[in-house]
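cron nightly-structures :: item 1 of 1
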Amino acid sequence: MIGPSPTLLQADDAGTSCAPSPLRERGQHEVFCGLTSIMWLHRKVQDAFFLIVGSRTCAHLMQSAAGVMIFAEPRFATAIIDDRDLSGLADLHDELDTIVERVLSRRPDIRMLVLVGSCPSEVLRLDLSQAARRLENRYAEQCRIIAFSGSGLETTFTEGEDQFLSALVDVCPQAAPDEAPSLLVVGALADVVEDQFARIFQALGIEDVRFIPARRSGSLPGIGTNTRVILAHPYLTETARKLERRCGPALPALYPLGEEGTTAWLRAAADAFGVDDARFDAVTAPGRARAEKAVDQYREILAGKRIFFFPDSRLEPMLARFLHREAGAEPIEIGSPFIHRQHMADELERLPDGVVLSEGQDVERQIDRCRAADPDLIVCGLGLANPFEAEGYATKWSIELVFTPIQGYEQAGDLAELFARPLRRRAALSAEV
């Protein structure tokens, strides 16, 4: 079957890129489960416990994804729905209450218990939000209990974080109308990246900066009309919608990848707080210089390389922008599971002319287009990477770009190196043949 022709980014009369509606594909797709967002969330919120309500398959997935040994005691677990639950021989809510009691008695250090829905619990229509409210009434003095859906039925894996942050926003206190303006950075960042941004904001004179999720569950920020919101990730659609109702739309900006993206992201916050140009340039100049120097080390191997992005994490347009504008690479197709036109406007404007932009997935058609394009590097999920490697292509696992700290000036070189590494490996293997 012949599908629609790919949509290209065309240049306007001024020579800059504009972003028309992308090719929308609706067919067979490969999705990494949203439960995997727990892998970075449970490390970020250090006193939270994530209890998945799902099947043995969910438990095996999480054990494999985390590489947890049998003697380890991580801050997540699976309450397994078994045959007794499915046949109605056991009351799911009674079973859940028993497991929660066991978890909290064994782990008294937990200050937030997160009930995580899965495909099986949603198919059974188990209302975890109601269960969380009931359990919080029981354990209010010990810990907070919230719920979110990590189901991967119709979402990509990064949207698990969006659902978690959306649930956190619901329980964030309301800031007083006369409270001084504050900046809320939204999205889970590695601690080292968060610390770097906090120091830069302080140097810029932005004193009241809060991050969500915070490292401790008790540090929920107050949110009100004087809160300025800036997104650290493009996949936080539901979270941004809830925040917009409480404190207005997020500041429009590039996302903080590479020197260009980080500078533009910081500039958006600085402008919102009236930071003058001289101070901004003085504060950011050293970081910009370090980022440019770090990326320059990889330009020789990345410049001119043709890169094909399969849809996976929703980071694809910003990654393509970084690789093209700072490392000289040539994206030939940029696939993304979903493109939020408002949140991604600045990113889409900076993509190269003539690149194919696709939204959604019909995996067989995309594989055919990829083979026809014969790229130097394919950015894709785990399920596609090994077959493409067997065909002689260099691949980069897109999930690695979520687990690895890549935001900010100090990580710009690390980000470039993630793409240079598979190209070097493929060159070394080709030289041995």
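cron nightly-structures :: done
The chain has 17 helices and 13 strands.
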